[in-house]
Amino acid sequence: MARALRGWGGASAPGREIRGEDLERIAAGAVLTRGLGRSYGDSALPPPGVEEVAGSVLADRIIGFDGDSGLLEAEAGLTIGAIERLFWPRGWTFPVLPGTQFVTLGGAVAADIHGKNHHVDGTVGRHVERLELELGDGRRVACSRRENEDLFRATLGGMGLTGHILNVAVRLQRIPSPWVWAESEKIPDLASFVAALRAAARDWPFTVGWLDALARGRRLGRGILIRGRWAEPGEGPPEPPGPQRRLAVPLLLPGWVLNRISVRAFNAFYFRRHPRTVKRGIVHPESFFHPLDAIRDWNRIYGRRGFTQHQCVLPENERPGATTRYLEALTASGLGSFLCVIKDCGPEGEGLLSFPRPGISIAVDLPLKRGTQALVDELNERVIAEGGRIYLAKDYLTRREHFQAMEPRLARFAEARRRWDPERRLASAQSVRLLEPLEAAA
Amino acid sequence: MKVVFLGASRGIGRALARLMAERRDRIYLLGRDPRDLAKCAHDLDVRSEDEAVAGYGRADLAEPESFALAFDEAEAALDGLDAVVLTAAAFAPQEELELDPEAARRLLEVNFTGAVLFCEEARRRLLARGGGKLLAFSSVAGERGRKPVVLYGATKAGLTAYLEGLDHKFRCRGLVVTTAKPGFVKTGMTAALDPPPFAGEPEPVARRILEAFDRGAPVVYAPAPWRWVMAVIRQLPRAVMRRVDF
Fold it and tell me: Are residues A338 and A417 in contact, defined by beta-carbon separation less than 8 angstroms?
């Protein structure tokens, strides 16, 4: 039986993951370390011709926690979900919570993840104090803002291409209680949505929106805006939130289940179901921060062929209407998106390839089928024209020339890689697809 | 519960020790590498807000003469003893063991002689205190002679038989023995093997085993489906077992 490694969207490559408690030992000689494999495309897949990657998930010990400063140091395989379970009841939270809790610390740093609080707290990199890496040549080095700063900045958002992340020191944040006060509201169109996100950003630490990506014309960009904050003591139940029951998708669904009609119906239903008035109240933090985790293995709904996600950030401030033009290109294609998420981003982070920058981020799921590559090409040309960029952790189909056109920062990243991995021992399927020839020529 | 734990640094043992630490059991860690044990102790300390780990010390299944001293120190640090957990064992692919008699001898000694003598030490200590609980990890590999685990399976078959006898003889005197029989679990130990259907993850497996241990169940299979898988495999005629490769 040939073994395959998969991305969350179903991209696969022949190969296997070597897991072990001693990450330093198993990473030695490996081209890449993989966490929980939640990147959608080929970020965590080995490059062609390589059949093994190191797996960090068993290297998950906490090295220390300072109850005064909130500094948590742990091995790279510790997951955000595990941190939540341990620290929410003690009045601390991981500073940046993405759509899923199934992310390792190493993966969070490699993708320099962001969450609903990006407009306030930036990416996870802002909260990382120090990293320990095993370089491609086996040397172990520490990096931070004071020590090997170029390596530190290249590693935040560097997709694991600067070294194997062994340990992460990150500052947790105090929370008044582990429950969340949430509000949600229907938004009729895209212009209102952008305005509503900006307005909510002034008063709320957490904002995000869901869009009906199939609505067109007047209704283009209609959806539901969600905003929230940590609940004050006494607002929520006295006990800490317990584990949530999860539904699961037991099997790969046949490809025809998600079609234009069913996706349109779902999106319309979801929009109509929400009351006209603002919905507000105390909610479980997992259902607020990690709605994607409510259904285990939800990626199976896309069937055997799988899906990809196109997530980009567009400089809506400098180029008003950029988001509208992007969504028009998407809806004109008629390729259904089950899920479309919109979020306004704050300032750019320190990571040399960190994704967010000021503007509006849009993420759309796209089933992999005939026409998807052409659509991604078209969307990427739109992104380039608007001066935006894409998120590598979601990408599977972007072409090298498109990526290089939207990333003027690549030269500095390439320089850091040349310094810290001069023999180019580290690579992923994605780095070969998007980076290598440019860097080889440089 | 005051627990002496050999094998908490890796795999299912690590997950089990965390569950026990998070509910504030008092644990004394035993293992081969004190530096590694110190790191595990830190991890368990943070998880339990500094309440779980009473200390750690060296013990190696390959050196049964190390057990008595290790237990002396553990009992002193814990100021008592309610339970002993043994999850440690050696593993190597069958083909490697066939080529290397020295490696085969080591595995046989560690997994059978070492494990049984460790449990004997635990039995004496617990009975001296009027009883207690013993949890030891055997394996579904001990249920039938199977091609991929001829030697490893033989050590586990022996250990299972010993633990069953121990339970039969001493339960009436207050020594409750639980034999855990993990199926395939995705740990560092099995990293080189292809995961079969029903392969488990360490944490849910540890959760199931701890629940059975708390209940005093004599035997627990985990993940759960392996109980039924093994019920079938135990009944398969030898002619079939000889032909299949699992």
Answer: no
